[in-house]
Design a protein that fits this description.
Elements (H helix, E strand, L loop, with lengths): L2 E4 L16 H5 L2 H4 L2 E6 L2 E6 L8 H12 L4 E7 L4 E9 L2 E6 L8 E4 H22 L20
Antiparallel strand pairs: 1-2, 2-3, 4-5, 5-6, 6-7
Helix pairs in contact: 3-4
């Protein structure tokens, strides 16, 4: 497989902080920043932490999935994290997505089935939503929790 997201099945947040108002704040703590998921790109595996490296990029992942579902032919995704700053140039061709990881010279582009690519990201988003809910976070205490609601819209 050219691309895969491997979630950490033991990922936990800890205790809910009542001062958290965004997903990023809820995921930005010492416990979360020490836990990782893995993004495989060809023969390269990148360990990405659930806190500072992906927390700020959740809205970008959701926008990317929305853009794919709208069947836009070409678009750019930028993950804004200081620790995981990446730019992807994406092209949709029939049932496939082609991604060029533009910010690193040593990564090749990938082409894979669009629905498999979506499934991998949804696996991560479902996990984040479930862990946040188990910790006591929801739409009433996180202003952007709605990003993780109704993920079925991407199936």
């Amino acid at each position: 497989m050219e691309f895969e997201i491997i979630i950490n099945p033991n990922f936990k947040i800890g205790i809910r902080d009542p001062e958290d108002t965004t997903i990023s704040e809820a995921l930005d703590n010492r416990l979360v920043n020490s836990q990782h998921f893995t993004m495989k790109w060809h023969d390269t595996s990148l360990k990405i932490n659930y806190g500072t490296q992906i927390a700020d990029g959740i809205s970008d992942v959701v926008k990317m999935l929305e853009t794919i579902k709208k069947k836009e032919e070409q678009f750019v995704v930028t993950f804004p994290s200081q620790a995981f700053f990446e730019t992807w140039i994406c092209k949709i061709e029939k049932c496939d997505i082609n991604i060029n990881w533009d910010s690193r010279d040593d990564y090749r582009s990938i082409t894979m089935k669009t629905d498999l690519f979506i499934q991998d990201w949804l696996k991560l988003l479902h996990q984040l939503r479930q862990v946040l809910i188990e910790t006591g976070y929801n739409v009433t205490n996180l202003v952007d929790f709605d990003l993780l609601e109704n993920l079925e819209r991407f199936h």
